[in-house]
Fold:
Amino acid sequence: MLLIEIKPNSCDFCGCCVGVCPEDAIELQEAHISIIEERCTNCAKCVWVCPFEVLLFNKPEKRRSGASVSPEETR
Ligand code: SF4
Ligand code: SF4
Structure:
């Protein structure tokens, strides 16, 4: 179960989270960031490293479906 949420309209696409993820679970391609649920272990390293507080660690009951931000959502 993926507990990391990506807050829309906040990502600067700096790539810091990609660099710290031990599972290579974050994809950053052309201003689009997403987390691969099958790889993510919810370690929250990406949450702590993000300088813009884009990534949130949610308890299961607060989890929203989908963990992806498209370019349209960041405008
Ligand atoms: S989620 Fe945060 S650390 Fe990751 S690319 Fe976006 S701004 Fe950078
Ligand atoms: S919670 Fe951990 S495993 Fe999941 S995307 Fe973030 S750094 Fe990677």
